[in-house]
Amino acid sequence: MNNVFKNVIVKYFIREILFIIFFIIIFVSHFYSYLLFHTSVELFSIIIAVSIFIFAWNTRKISKNNYFLFLGSAYFFTGILDFFHTLSYKGMSIFSGIGTNVPTQLWIASRYLLAISILIAPVFFKRKMNEITMLMSYFLITILILLSVFYLHNFPESFREGAGLTAFKIESEYVISFLFIISAFLLSYFRDKFDKKVYILLSVSFILNIVAELLFTLYVGVYDIYNMLGHLAVLLSYYLIYKAVIEVGLTKPYNLLFLELKILDRKKDEFLSLVNHEVKNPLASIKLSSELLIRHLSKSGDTQSLEDLRVINNDVDIISHMISNLVDMNRIESGKLKYRITRFNFGKFIEEISPVIKTLVRNHKLIIKGKTDVNVKGDKDRIKQVIINFITNAVKYSPKDKKIILSIKTEDDEIILGVKDFGIGIEREKQIQIFDKYFRTERGERKAEGLGLGLYISKEIISFHKGKIWVDSEVNKGSTFYFTFPIR
Ligand code: ADP
Known about the structure:
Structural class: alpha+beta
Radius of gyration: 34 Å
Helix content: 55-70%
Bound molecules: adenosine-5'-diphosphate
């Protein structure tokens, strides 16, 4: 099996594979003992019900609405009724003197509780509720059901020995299925309140509940095939609820609890790419026009206008550089910074980009030292971006006419590139923070404009290429920024 395929399986399907194994074991267990099968399915769903409640309860303060808290509470109290249903199931011999009717009544009661709760849960998208009142209400309903089944014996008969399911039980299963169908429709009405994956998981889980209910109208004995298939549908339904709430909630909380923030984040992305296009186009035409004018004016001898135009030209570069940095930073944050990897000769690549570097270093003395002739693999444009960032910083933070030295050497299995300036330097204690997002030294801020993003982006690019990046600097003597580029 090739590695990529293996990684995809491990990353995306390992939990599913484990669940399928678990599912098969549970299914096979019914050949050995139906009671073992039933108890395992019910315990699995009870554990999930309790976990959903614990998750929803502990995240209720940070959650924007009470939908999941209400859902979690409904699952929890349904779980309590399921627990009694499991203990009273035929063959468990825990409660004496009860037949199949009691566990069937408890089952129907727990399904009614769940179906009605799921139906009304969307109300809590808009409305916050008093948590204690809600828990007390569920608690009371659960106690009343247990009393009615075990003590008062006034819960409608659901199973008659010898005759099987009663009309009440069968009709109830249809009513419950109908409630789940309406809930599935309601869910699709409120689909924009959920992340797509959560929405699909919840919908399928509700649909599996319907399938289970319909299968439960068909069984004659509580150990027969329809009863078993119904329980398997319940098992799957709980697994999907677990994935929707716990797995997504813990691994991608933004997709469950903070969906509004995620939507805002997406809007920010859209806004930034809009700015990128809409602002950069006019900037490009300003730059083109100013360059044409510079060429034109340089013959006229109007030095003042020429100087003003150069300032405009320079400022346009600064603005478009800032916008590019903002867009790149956003792409890094969302893991969307794209790389186009090619194989290239590093020495030739430096020769190719040196005319661009020279235009940046007009008022300084550029010296290029060293050579390399090795072939490497990487994104040329991104590496060029790092070198240009080092050079523009060297220009920005060192006085005119000073030297800027670009050096390249090959050592063992890496290329080391350095950009040395003789400028303001960086205090020792600041050197460690220099690659952080938005970090600018006070001296740097006084000296030149910037957003403090260039080195952060450079570090990301170099890390992507498995290289290292660092600085050697002394205040008022200058700085040398380095990166290494692995040859293999
Ligand atoms: P900026 O756009 O602010 O220059 P960078 O991330 O490229 O963003 O640099 C971060 C900060 O590091 C700068 O604001 C400056 O304070 C400092 N810095 C970077 N390069 C140099 C340098 N060659 N000499 C002195 N300080 C530098």
